[in-house]
Design a protein that fits this description.
The complex is a heterotrimer of chains A (about 650), B (about 180) and C (about 325). Chain A contains 20 helices and 2 strands. Chain A has a two-stranded antiparallel sheet. In chain A, helix 3 runs antiparallel to helix 4, helix 3 packs parallel to helix 5 and helix 5 packs antiparallel against helix 6. Chain A is globular. Chain B has 5 helices and 2 strands, in the order αααβααβ. In chain C, the strands form 4 sheets. A 5-stranded mixed β-sheet of chain C has the order 3-2-1-5-8. In chain C, strands 4-10-9 form a 3-stranded mixed β-sheet, with helices on one face. Classes of the chains: A mainly alpha (about 650), B mainly alpha (about 180), C alpha+beta (about 325). Chains in contact: A-B, A-C, B-C. Chains A and C meet through helix 4, helix 8, helix 10, helix 11 and helix 12 of A and helix 1, helix 2 and helix 3 of C.
């Protein structure tokens, strides 16, 4: 690539600067970075809430938190972690990494993607502002009716929860759409579907699951708000409604939700293992099939959250079978990963350590999950600390540990510096020991009769010792997370500067500088195998220099769109410029959502600014109009892009 | 950026201190004006220059939880038996604009605690003052006197009346009973 | 590698050791006193040992994978084929184990529902925020017995619970006897119980139901048939008439103050149904839904300032003079 062309690319794809410019950015790395940082802040807030709960439960009949505040805090903890941390963080990693991994210059629908981030941010801020003014939801993250209904949930707390769902659901859907289209239409030529990285597969499966699961909870929360605000009777048994309807609607979303959180983590594992074991992943096809199978089966499990509600037993048995069945693809994945490690001598750097921690913790969580799939056993341990133990083993073990592995792995790419190794080791061990010390005793607590969501327990129950142990574990785990933060700050300042590919990995995000320029790649790559960079290095493409795409303009935001299955070049299109309208639309939409908590009139009235903002968003500027005309004329003039890769030597 | 951070910090602290009255749960307290009946006149006539009645704003009228407790007590203390769900029967309707003994919180409190001629029992010592004030707040919500976000919404029951929060605010008119029994 | 493995083993053993603080307990699922809890307990141990075995095997494989190997692994077709066979075998074994679990669950499930019998005692359970309303059913209405927060059952006889809720969702759970079943509004759920040995089995609400979900407990007392019949006969009788002046004064206070507005004492004019029934209060183990032991001091504290023990609960605090309070306590203690 000649320097002149690089300069042109820099100019074309430059991100806006300044205070206002910050709100106009639409490049996926800018938005992705913000997304990751925001989600991590919510993780810390949720962690603080957890520490507060553990302090209250450290000894019997403690008076640190009263019942009302405790109930708000455990609701905020669950809501924050599930809706404001876990799903957004996974999507954030997808937003940052997927376009790089598939060799595109930007994510599809960049403005929509930015809108998704702002709606999420505003929703999170809204929830916490309400929490600090005493209006924090207090009915649990699952907000069962009738407790959250109009009669037993006075005030606006449950409405705040319901609208938070709307915010986060809209954000998740919108980002999922961007990701799906990116993966299907913007891949580098030659990256057929059976060559895309497993992390990208995981994100695709997750995105489809989001598209099918999120609308259910949005529907449920809308029915809840309607019941509370307008007087409908969806959940009123006296007028033909049903309290179980809520549970079905919520858990039909709620179970896929936990797989939405877990599946990207499996993608992270599949990305990290080959790098540190220095071999390609074992069983690519079975791994992909497992991901897809898990995604499908996850939709058929939801009633296992309702085993104690008196549903017909034969129906429950079906869900027992399905809940156990989903362990088969998950097990297949674990065996493939172990097979990947077998015969290698992996480098035990922090990313790999966290991967090993994942194996240890997630295995425990998965096994207790199989126990919970049994109706009989579940009837004893449902809604006890046994389930708290299980869910944290699968969510922290199965998602947070892989996330930390991913943080350490992709930190060089995102920040341009290497993360500290020594602090990384300490971080890992403190988190591993603290986590197990906190949550393993909870299995015992549940079996000894301690229910969930209790702000206090009597002294004579014999639960004090294990609870105190769990609190101490929590302190250790907090120290581990604190070390991570220190590590990040120190590495940002004084860490070793990272090159393009410090880990010697195979996927395309490592084929550009750290951090990537706003146009992602100097030259768009052409791919000939599953492990793009390793194949290029070993000369599988048939020539010394890597094959690149030519014929895509550098003076316009032009990208190459390829076919779905085989990624053959299809046509070229223009990407939108940075714009303030995604942010303003998000603000307008937030106004509509927040207003509708207080009055139904907010919907028609609030729709007006939203409409105006959306029209402004899509209204083509003169510059865009001219660019489009010029690009079309250009497409008419030049021949179709070549079907064979053109190497630099021949250009 | 520093000034932005400062503004945000101050805003958060202010919000925390403001702590929405609507959402507070007041479990155990002696509400202000527990003995307001001392100050409530039964007659409009006064010797000498008229002195206005001392109006007492019940703090529960901004508290959604207290109003919902009032609604629960309205049913469990069987106010429903005479007043139905606001439509009245043996006793007068409570959701309309007509108030026989006064519509202000201290009047309603007095009505409940003292009882009234023509059939309203006296609940003094039968319910606590806090419970009485909760019922007062609820009774006033029945005619739409309370803010919409504080009034209860529909109950989980058969749909027999407009929810209090949808009720249009009535303009109270106090008329003494015209035909005493 | 070796030290890492040792560290992991140590960590695992330590967590297991510190959590192994005994299975017996007053509210423990691992201390079954009835046939259903016993079957579930059996299933638990089967699953625990099998899963522990699976865990050990998989972690051993992982550790072995970490320890063996060269820096540049062999990726030839022969090794890949062998690996594929091993992985496939692992998946097959997993499937077989899961199938076995599923069958065990189905078999256990059938056993749990096999208590149905026309001989059963039927108790109607109504959940309230935050106490339990129990009514022993009988075809003759005057033979029905209403009580609160405590039930007695005869050893060896099945008990059918017909349950519903009056406000929000609760869950009835006596771990020593059986798994939990929810109490739903607008539905009636049914569960069966049986105790095979005498004892006091504590239960607790297991579905988050508001402020005092943590303090919504009850007790199931299983006793030999003779003792149960005696208890039941006593329960059927209305309240004992007040014997001495103090008790009479106490009864008068009960009837003339806030108490009768919510509580029922059969045989008197107090007929409130929105609070626990108190006819035989003095014969109960605990008050405030299992929160406090039934002693005079606790009862006094509860009446004077219930919000201190159970903030947010529906019983208000009271301001009674000492004499009145003592008389009231005398009366309540007489309600055996």
């Amino acid at each position: 690539m000649k320097d002149r062309e690089l300069l042109q690319l820099e100019e074309t794809w430059a991100e806006p600067r300044g205070f206002i410019g910050w709100f106009k950015c639409v490049h996926h790395t800018s938005i992705g970075r913000r997304f990751v940082i925001t989600a991590f802040i919510f993780f810390l807030l949720g962690g603080i809430e957890a520490v507060l709960m553990r302090i209250q439960l450290a000894r019997p009949e403690n008076t640190f938190l009263g019942p009302d505040l405790y109930n708000q805090i455990f609701t905020m903890h669950g809501t924050t972690m599930m809706f404001l941390f876990a799903v957004p963080m996974m999507e954030a990693l997808g937003v940052y990494l997927v376009p790089l991994m598939v060799g595109a210059r930007n994510i599809a629908f960049p403005r929509l993607n930015a809108f998704g981030y702002y709606i999420y941010l505003l929703g999170g801020i809204f929830l916490y502002v309400m929490f600090f003014t005493g209006t924090g939801p207090d009915n649990g993250w699952f907000s069962y009716v009738p407790l959250a209904g109009p009669e037993y949930g006075p005030g606006k707390r449950a409405d705040v929860w319901a609208q938070l769902i709307t915010f986060t659901e809209l954000s998740a859907l919108v980002v999922a759409v961007s990701l799906i289209v990116t993966v299907f239409k913007l891949r580098a030529p030659g990256m057929s579907l059976n060559r895309i990285p497993l992390f990208v597969w995981a994100i695709v499966v997750t995105a489809f699951m989001i598209v099918f699961a999120m609308p259910t909870v949005a529907l449920g929360s809308t029915c809840l708000i309607l019941d509370r605000l307008v007087g409908t009777h969806f959940f009123n048994p006296a007028e033909g409604g049903d309290v179980l309807l809520w549970q079905h609607l919520f858990w039909f979303f709620g179970h896929p939700e936990v797989y939405i959180i877990f599946i990207p983590a499996t993608g992270i594992i599949s990305a990290i293992l080959p790098t540190f074991c220095r071999r390609k992943i074992f069983g690519y096809t079975p791994l992909v099939l497992s991901l897809v199978a898990t995604g499908f089966i996850a939709f058929g499990l939801w009633v296992h959250h309702m085993f104690t509600t008196g549903l017909p037993r034969i129906a429950q048995s079906f869900f027992t079978a399905a809940s156990m069945m989903i362990a088969i693809p998950t097990g297949a994945q674990i065996f493939c990963w172990i097979a990947t490690i077998w015969g290698t001598r992996p480098r035990l750097r922090p990313p790999m350590l966290f991967v090993l921690g994942f194996f240890f913790n997630f295995l425990i969580g998965g096994l207790t999950g199989v126990m919970l799939a049994s109706v009989s056993l579940d009837q004893q341990v449902h809604d006890t600390f046994f389930v708290v133990a299980h869910l944290h083993y699968v969510l922290i073990g199965g998602s947070v540990f892989p996330l930390f592995a991913g943080f350490y792995y992709w930190f060089p790419k995102m920040a341009g510096r290497m993360p500290g190794d020594r602090l990384g080791h300490w971080n890992f061990w403190l988190m591993l020991i603290g986590f197990n010390l906190t949550f393993f005793p909870m299995h015992q607590l549940g079996l000894k009769g301690m229910p969930r969501r209790v702000y206090a327990y009597l002294p004579g129950m014999g639960w004090g010792g294990l609870n105190l142990l769990a609190t101490l574990g929590g302190v250790i785990m907090t120290a581990g997370v604190a070390l991570f933060l220190i590590n990040v700050f120190l590495s940002l300042r004084t860490g070793e500067v990272a090159g393009e590919n410090p880990w010697d990995a195979a996927t395309l995000e490592w084929a550009t500088s750290s951090p990537p320029p706003p146009f992602n790649f100097d030259s768009l790559p052409i791919v000939a195998g599953r492990d793009a960079l390793w194949d290029m290095r070993e000369g599988h493409s048939g020539s010394a220099a890597p094959a690149v795409v030519t014929g895509v303009r550098g003076d316009l935001r032009e990208v190459l769109v390829t076919t779905v299955l085989d990624a053959e070049p299809d046509h070229k299109t223009l990407m939108p410029d940075p714009s303030i309208w995604p942010f303003l639309s998000a603000v307008a939409t937030s106004g509509l959502f927040i207003g509708s908590i207080f009055t139904p009139w907010a919907v028609p009235v609030g729709a007006v600014p939203v409409t105006i903002a959306l029209i402004a968003w899509f209204w083509p500027t003169r510059k865009e109009h001219l660019e489009r005309i010029e690009a079309e004329q250009d497409h008419g003039r030049t021949p179709a892009p070549p079907a064979e890769p053109v190497t630099q030597g021949q250009a | 950026m520093n000034s932005v951070r400062n503004i945000i910090g101050v805003a958060l602290i202010t919000l925390a201190l403001a702590s929405c009255e609507r959402e507070r749960r007041r479990f155990n307290e002696v509400p202000p004006g527990a003995t307001a009946n001392d100050a409530v006149r039964q007659s409009v006539l006064q010797p000498g220059a008229p002195q206005p009645n001392q109006h007492l704003k019940s703090v529960y009228e901004d508290n959604a939880w207290a109003v919902s407790e009032g609604k629960r007590l309205y049913e469990s203390f069987n106010c429903v038996g005479c007043h139905a769900h606001g439509g009245g029967g043996i006793g007068p309707a409570l959701m309309d604009e007509k108030w026989v003994y006064g519509d202000q919180p201290e009047n309603v409190f007095s009505t409940i605690i003292e009882g009234r001629p023509n059939g309203m029992p006296s609940f003094r010592a039968k319910i606590t003052n806090q419970q009485a004030w909760e019922v007062v707040a609820y009774v006033r919500s029945m005619s739409g006197q309370l803010a919409k976000d504080v009034s209860p919404s529909r109950d989980d029951d058969m749909n027999i009346k407009t929810p209090e929060q949808s009720k249009e605010k009535e303009q109270p008119v106090t008329k003494a009973a015209e035909h005493p029994k | 590698m070796r030290s890492k493995r040792r560290q992991w083993t140590a960590a695992l053993l330590w967590t297991v050791a510190t959590s192994g603080s005994g299975c017996a307990g007053v509210q423990s699922a691992l201390d079954p006193a009835g046939p259903q809890a016993a079957r579930i307990n059996d299933l638990w141990w089967l699953m625990l040992w099998t899963c522990a075995g699976v865990f050990a095997i998989v972690i051993s494989a992982l550790v072995a994978a970490l320890r063996r190997g060269r820096a540049q692994p062999a990726e030839d077709a022969e090794t890949e084929r062998k690996m594929t066979k091993v992985v496939a075998a692992g998946v097959a074994v997993t499937t077989v184990i899961l199938f076995a679990f599923m069958i065990s669950d189905f078999v256990t499930g059938r056993a749990l529902w096999s208590l149905a019998s026309p001989d059963a005692i039927i108790i109607k359970v109504t959940g309230h925020q935050w106490w339990w309303d129990f009514e022993y059913q009988d075809p003759i209405p005057s033979h029905r017995v209403r009580t609160a927060n405590e039930i007695h059952i005869p050893v060896g006889r099945p008990v059918k619970l017909e349950m519903t809720s009056s406000d929000v969702i609760h869950s009835f759970w006596v771990p020593n006897l059986h798994g939990k079943t929810d109490l739903l509004t607008g539905h009636q759920t049914v569960t069966w119980l049986q105790a095979d040995r005498p004892g006091k089995y504590r239960g607790q609400c297991a579905e988050y139901c508001g402020h005092q979900h943590a303090h919504m407990a009850f007790v199931v007392i299983a006793e030999p048939v003779g003792q149960f019949n005696a208890w039941f006969d006593n329960e059927r009788h209305p309240a004992i008439t007040a014997a001495n002046a103090g008790q009479q004064r106490g009864q008068q206070i009960f009837m003339s103050r806030t108490c009768m507005m919510c509580h029922q004492i059969r045989g008197t004019d107090a007929g409130g149904r929105s609070a626990p029934e108190l006819t035989h209060l003095a014969s109960r183990e605990s008050i405030a839904a299992g929160t406090l032991a039934n002693t005079r001091d606790n009862l006094k504290g509860w009446i004077v300032d219930s919000q201190r023990f159970k903030p947010g609960n529906k019983m208000p605090s009271h301001d009674l003079g000492d004499e009145d309070l003592n008389a009231l306590l005398d009366y309540l203690e007489s309600l055996k």
